[in-house]
Amino acid sequence: MMVHVPGVLTPEQVARCREVMQKAEWVDGRVTAGHQSAKTKNNLQLPEDAPEARELGNMVIEALGRSSLFMSAVLPKQVFPPLFNRYDAGMTFGAHVDNAVRGHAASGARIRTDVSSTLFISAPEDYDGGELVVEDTYGRHSAKLPAGDMIVYPATSLHHVAPITRGSRIASFFWTQSMIRDEAQRALLFDLDMSIMRLGNDHPQHKSVVSLTAVYHNLLRQWAEM
Length: 226
Ligand code: NI
Prior knowledge:
- This protein is of the alpha+beta class.
- The chain is 34% helix and 31% strand.
- It has two domains: 3-178, q2cbj1_9rhob like domain (Jelly Rolls), CATH 2.60.120; 183-223, DNA Excision Repair, Uvrb, Chain A.
């Protein structure tokens, strides 16, 4: 399941990201890559402990808290501090799978990566190439979204970033451990939640709104890991 979450960052927040990043020092993106992905990864990153990454990371975390779509699709237990990357012309990240477990050096925290997220900070017209391509059981899906929008996809999937042929592509990326480990269960809960919301909007008095909401919460109660 891939979910497009529009407007995670406001245009002002996107502008702030670009301003901070212009002055920041970028390092080789292989610092956070595993053995396999290091071979195919060619991009730049803000160091995890850089003050710029912390300031912008906190901005992203706060924005996620206001996104009911992100909450419903991911059911987050813990979000890894957001990282930031840049691909200039000629850079790419070949097919890989994200590491299953991520440790955060500063806090010592460790999470299981259930869900991956890419939040686009560059506008799509500012670069050519750079699509995020995700392969799942239904085939290949490509995402290149407006600045401030985010794509959420299972961390279990093979994915790559197509080579950039013009301009620069800047994004934030991070992993989340979900309360619902199983992707099929997570997708089912998301579908149910969206359906209840539509029903509630179209027919607010319908009795099934309450009973279906109970089903949702009772499934969540059965499956959630705390
Ligand atoms: Ni990845």
